[in-house]
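Subject: two folds for Thursday's group meeting

Dear M.,

Sorry for the delay on this. The cluster queue was jammed most of the week, so I only got both jobs back this morning. I'm pasting them in the order they finished. Each block is the input sequence followed by the predicted structure tokens. Could you check whether the formatting survives your parser before we put anything on slides? The first protein is the one we discussed after the seminar.
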Amino acid sequence: MKNQSSVLKFFLTVLVFLSFSGCSSKELYESTQPKYNESECRKLPPHQYDECINQEAKTYEEYQRERQDIIDKKG
């Protein structure tokens, strides 16, 4: 029974890994970015409302450029 449990854990781990590897970096980035809309911003205190409304998420391309700049500076 113990051997079967180890095999099952191994296959579940491989399955999870494969499901994550199907996402591209861009899809993963975009899916994790907060989505701001007016109805959500209205829930905030007045002094945070304007900041919330004006906040825009970076595009993946902007993120990649900034990331590459940081990598280049370190290297």
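Second protein, same layout:
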Amino acid sequence: MARATKQDKQSRGQYSSEYKTEALALAARVGVTAAARQLGVHESQLYAWRGKARRDESQSEAAR
């Protein structure tokens, strides 16, 4: 197997919190698979964002 050159490598995308919120709303409406396909991201990325959002939400509720 050949090594990946700099041209072959993809950089990681950085998404704003607004984008993530809208992506999760889309996933809630049409499902994670369809949302990931529409947005061009992996399903696992949406699941990770959803998990982090839920953890953040529960931590903010616990701090009250």
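Two things I noticed about the second structure. The first helix runs from residue 17 to 30. The chain has one domain: 17-62.

Cheers,
T.
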